[in-house]
Amino acid sequence: MKRKILVVGGVAGGASVAARARRLDEHAEIIVFERGPYPSFSNCCLPNFLSREIENSDDLILMSPETFKNQYNIDVRVRNEVTKILPESKKVEVKNLETGEVYQESYDKLALSPGAEVIMPGAIKGIDSKHVFPLRNVPDVRAIDNYIHENNVQDIVVVGGGFIGLEVMENLRRFGKNVTLVEALDQVMTPVDFEMAQILHKTIVDNGVDLIVSDEVVSIEENTVTLKSGKQVKAETVVMAVGVRPETALAKDCGIEIGETGAILVNRHYQTNYPDIYAVGDAIEVKHAITGKKTKLPLAGPAQMQARAAADHMYGRFNRNPGVIGSSVCRIFDMNVASTGLNEKACKAEGIDYRYAYVIPGDKVGLMPNCNPLFFKLIFEYPTGKILGAQAVGKGAVDRRVDIVATAIHFGASVEDLKDVELTYAPFFSTAKDVVKYAAIVATNILNDEFKQVPVTAVRGLVESGAFIIDVREKGEYERSHLKGAVNIPLSQFRQRMNEIPKDKPVYLHCRSAQRSYNAVRALQGNGYTEVYNIQGSFLGISFYEYYQDLITGRDKILTDYNFD
């Protein structure tokens, strides 16, 4: 008997359900309803059109209804909106938005992929102004682009420092516009921790963007926006990117259950409480693989995996559903940032006892061209050593490093497992001891309580309190810039000058990127010193951590100068 499958919504989730179902069943009748004009487009690439990194907006469209029909024999109906689901009779009610016709279609299996809508806060005065735009699809990005060109817009405010906001900010700035980014929290890119975000903050302001954190838009005027602090910012155009919420109205209206997060509740096979109705993508509630708690994850990669699993289950195939860990990557000008699993904030919220290694080696052998620091943070459970998450920021391949950790998390690995993983090596691609293995080795030492450390976030307090800090870099490095009050005892002279180091109070050591100071810590421990601490991140990390906060607050620097080399 020929099966009839209806899919509500296209793009990553819906289009993938339809394509997978066709691969499993050549004879099924498959219909996709998309209320917009395009059933399949690259929503992740939308911001890149604003800078003309993608030259033509038509290139964002991946497949047309004609392509779906010719290649997959799938009936795609654009500008057709499903307005009602009738589970008892297994039918949907559809409105043709071009003609106004309302009709019904029956189904054997129904898949929902309605996605998420951009949040447009009604509390912001002027949010409905003609120069305020969301960004969700191709018509949205065309509308933004057309308005900018038709009105010769120069000053643009982007509201929200998440993935979309940062990508819009970057591409508009690349196009030569004056861009202000406003973020209500104290940092952009919340999947990474505060000290990692400071590297991104410096990158943003270095590229000419006016970055405003810990403030929010309260009203939008014709040529300005007003912030909660009272500050006014020039704004001929405003792009809203404060977040998204799952579109659940259609599901709610027919009695589909909604989960505790406000998204559609599904089981491990992505079935709703109606067994013949499935849901995937940004609109559903998912389980976090580490915490076991329900969450939402509006990312294309998980949506495609969910779509495949849902279509498989329609045909009696079963997939593992391990949950999600939130792996992501983003480019911000010449800097890349990636993360996976839990960050410190999440560990604290969950009451997890954790430790972490923070290392800054080069992303390749230093003799190679374009070798740059790679800031890497590896978070693990204590005392088990189970890997919980990782964050990486740098100009190199941060995605590859974080993907390794994501794989380790998937298989329940510990930091001891990770340090023994055999990775590829050539000087142009990495160091012989890649940053991932380097971090795992440091993490194993921390796990075994072999030395003590203090975070980069604590250094200002140490300097201001007059703590005994040793800079183990060579004299020339120290003279170029150093922590105020730090004593310079180069590692090359360390054992000869150990008598200058007190045993009756804590001693803190740092260098450029931690390896030399770690060696100094071990030397002191071997000579009877007990209150010895290695400063994580060392001078390079301290410079990046302090810079943006110094810039926006005007506070006294704790360094004689920054060093970003």
Distance between the termini: 68 Å
Total tally of structural domains = 4
Shape: globular
Rg of Cα set: 27 Å
In terms of per-residue confidence, which ranges show pLDDT below 50 for 5 or more consecutive residues? none
Order of the strands making up the biggest sheet:
5-2-1-9-20
CATH class of the largest domain: Alpha Beta
Strand residues, percent: 15-25%
Number of helices: 16
Helical fraction equals: 25-40%
Mean pLDDT figure: 95
CATH architecture of the largest domain: 3-Layer(bba) Sandwich
> How would you name the oligomeric state of the polypeptide chains in this document?
single chain
Pairing-aware structural class of the strands and helices? alpha/beta
CATH superfamily of the largest domain: FAD/NAD(P)-binding domain
Describe the biggest sheet? 5 strands, parallel
Number of DSSP E strands: 32
CATH structural fold name of the largest domain: FAD/NAD(P)-binding domain
